[in-house]
Amino acid sequence: MSNKKLENELTELKIDLDDVSRNMVDEFFNELNKRINLPFVAKEQLINDYLKAFRYYLNNNYKVKKIVKLLDLNNLGDFYAHNERRYLELDNAAIVYPLGMRQHEMPMFRLGVKLKEVVCPELLQIALDITIKRFPGFVCTVKSGFFWHYLETNNNPIQIEEEKDIPCKPISRLSRTYRSFRVLYYKKRISIEFFHVLTDGTGGLVFLKTLLREYFNLKGIKVPIEKGILDINGIVNEEELENEFKKAKGDSDFNTFVDHSSLQLKGKRINAPMSKIVHFILETDKLKEVSKKYSGTITAYICAIMFLAAKPCIKQKEGLFNIQIPINMRKFNNSKTLKNYSMYFNASVDIKNVHDKETLVKEISKQIKEKGSYESMHKMMVTTGKIINSLSFVPKFLKNIVLQLVYGSFANSMIGSTLSNVGLVDMPEEMKKEIDMVYFLLSPGYPNRASATMASINNKTLFTVIKNSDDDTFENNIYDLLKEDGLKVELEGSIDYES
Question: Is the pTM of this model over 0.85?
Answer without folding.
Answer: yes
